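Entry:
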Amino acid sequence: MASTLILYMGNPIVKNDQVGLIVGSRIASFYSSRAGVDVKQFGGSPLDLVSDIQGYDRLILIDSISTGQRPIGSIKLFAEEDILAGEGDVYLHGMNLSEALKLCRRLQLPFPGELHLIGIEAGVIYEFDESLSAELRDTLPRITPEVRKIIEELIR
């Protein structure tokens, strides 16, 4: 059986960015007793991610995205090639998620054979505010089961 790590992430003080944290915490209990599946909240830097993913066969990330191309609350599943191709924003110490994962590959560190990102379209994610917008908050009852369904398909 493949070992799977589900990491849910976000920033609780940035408007709408905490949607990954909210959805992840809601689904964590469904997988807490499933053999071969670990669910963890992630709040570190992209470099911290490099050490956290060691030893897993499959990595599933749950996070907010802000593309402006989809309705708020919509979900997009990204495959490894989509994630590694991303330029994204510059984070602390000049490294984003894509660059951290590429670093794993370059250094030939043990890396999950499967990598997926479940992106939740969040709209504005660059304002300090500890709440979700009403528009995003209203989609939570639909988002959580959709994310669970995607995870179930990925870990079968």
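Helices lie at 19-31, 46-52, 80-85, 97-106, 134-137, 140-155.
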